[in-house]
């Protein structure tokens, strides 16, 4: 083996070894959209049986999904700014205007915030004070969150754009490493997977294709056609990819062969929400105003739960529960075995974002610009008073 081949093999090994590492989050952190690099929406912690309001904060426009690191919660807003809030109180720590509305969730890596705008700018900012480190400009809007891979000295950032490209950038400088072109918009967040020791990005496209891309070279490993365009973020686990699309189906495909393992279709309504994965279930909302829970191995329906609006918000799941917000302005906690409601709360504004879990807190952004934090535990009922108003 010559020196260049040996170096290439060494680089590929390093990518494969580190690409799947979920952000080395401290306990209580939720530093990226969906919580992990595979975009599963799954936590190893246990969701509480009920929650009580802790604080609320409001931006000047609709809010993205929230991410958390240390004592900071970070959110993007349609007002064109990135906002950092004190996790315990909701007090604003800093706010930085990026010039265009923001729909994409932030990503926190190495003590920095990476976020895209509807103007096509991807920016890296200090988590401490919002200082802008660098900016990269795509040719169209960025609506999905960025992902990252690689060891600290070789860190790379991935992000998709409506210019039909998936970009790989140097995390330290924002310099372009490679770009991979699809046939249409890239709307979701790239998921990172291990494909037989090869580190890959997996992303759905509005060209109705699931793209599997080598992280080292930026070349296609596999393309998996589906029957309609994909607006959602995919989830990957166990060598399979799961996603819903605008052909009114949920699809499970094998990453190694590209074969479709199963499809699920109930009624003629599209799926926009990213799926959440447990060990044996797939949970996602549909535009049929229902939450769907499917058997992960077969795609057969386990249950559906009716809501009063479209369910575009991705779920957060633990081993026994699913937490999901919908357009009816409610946040629901559902039993994974039965689909029964365990707890819910009325927020009053559409929820299209994914909930974040930070220790005993849950946080969610809303379409009216509100960010709401809830603490584990049932609110105490009001104390009884006598006729004179005395307790």
Task: Describe what this molecule looks like in 3D.
The protein is 4% helix and 42% strand. It is mostly beta strands and 391 residues long. It has a single domain, classed as YVTN repeat-like/Quinoprotein amine dehydrogenase (Methylamine Dehydrogenase, Chain H), CATH 2.130.10. The strands form eight sheets. Strands 1-32-31-30 form a four-stranded antiparallel β-sheet, with no helix packed on it. Strand 2 and strand 3 form a beta hairpin. The radius of gyration is 21 Å and the shape is globular. 50% of the residues are buried.
Question: Which features would summarize this protein structure in a list?
Answer:
391 residues, mainly beta, Methylamine Dehydrogenase, Chain H, 4-stranded antiparallel sheet, 1 helix
Summarize it.
The protein is mainly beta and 391 residues long. It is built from one helix and 32 strands.
- The level of helicity is under 10%
CATH class: Mainly Beta
β-strand amount: 35-45%
CATH homologous superfamily title: YVTN repeat-like/Quinoprotein amine dehydrogenase
């Amino acid at each position: 083996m010559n020196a260049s081949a040996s170096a290439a093999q060494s680089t590929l090994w390093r990518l494969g070894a580190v690409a799947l590492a979920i952000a080395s989050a401290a306990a209580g952190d939720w530093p990226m959209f969906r919580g992990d690099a595979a975009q599963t929406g799954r936590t190893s912690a246990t969701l509480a049986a009920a929650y009580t309001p802790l604080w609320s904060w409001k931006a000047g426009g609709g809010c993205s999904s929230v991410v958390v690191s240390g004592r900071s919660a970070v959110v993007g807003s349609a007002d064109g700014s990135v906002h950092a809030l004190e996790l315990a109180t909701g007090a604003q720590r800093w706010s930085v205007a990026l010039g265009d509305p923001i729909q994409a969730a932030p990503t926190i890596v190495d003590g920095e915030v990476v976020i895209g705008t509807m103007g096509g700018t991807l920016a890296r900012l200090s988590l401490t004070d919002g200082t802008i480190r660098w900016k990269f400009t795509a040719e169209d809007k960025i609506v999905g969150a960025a992902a990252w891979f690689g060891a600290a000295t070789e860190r790379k950032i991935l992000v998709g754009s409506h210019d039909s490209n998936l970009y790989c950038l140097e995390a330290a400088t924002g310099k372009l490493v490679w770009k991979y072109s699809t046939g249409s918009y890239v709307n979701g967040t790239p998921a990172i997977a291990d494909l037989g020791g090869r580190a890959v990005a997996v992303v759905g496209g509005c060209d109705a294709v699931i793209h599997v891309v080598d992280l080292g070279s930026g070349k296609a490993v596999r393309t998996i056609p589906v029957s309609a365009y994909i607006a959602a973020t995919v989830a990957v686990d166990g060598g399979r990819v799961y996603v819903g699309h605008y052909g009114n189906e949920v699809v499970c495909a094998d990453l190694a062969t590209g074969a479709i393992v199963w499809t699920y279709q109930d009624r003629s309504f599209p799926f926009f929400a990213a799926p959440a994965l447990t060990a044996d279930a797939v949970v996602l909302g549909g535009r049929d105003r229902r939450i769907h829970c499917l058997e992960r191995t077969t795609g057969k329906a386990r249950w559906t739960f009716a809501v009063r609006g479209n369910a575009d918000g991705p779920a957060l799941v633990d081993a026994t529960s699913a937490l999901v917000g919908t357009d009816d302005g409610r946040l629901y906690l559902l039993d994974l075995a039965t689909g029964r409601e365990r707890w819910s709360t009325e927020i009053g504004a559409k929820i299209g974002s994914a909930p974040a879990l930070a220790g005993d807190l849950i946080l969610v952004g809303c379409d009216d610009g509100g960010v709401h934090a809830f603490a584990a535990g049932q609110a105490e009922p009001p104390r009884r008073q006598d006729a004179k108003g005395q307790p």
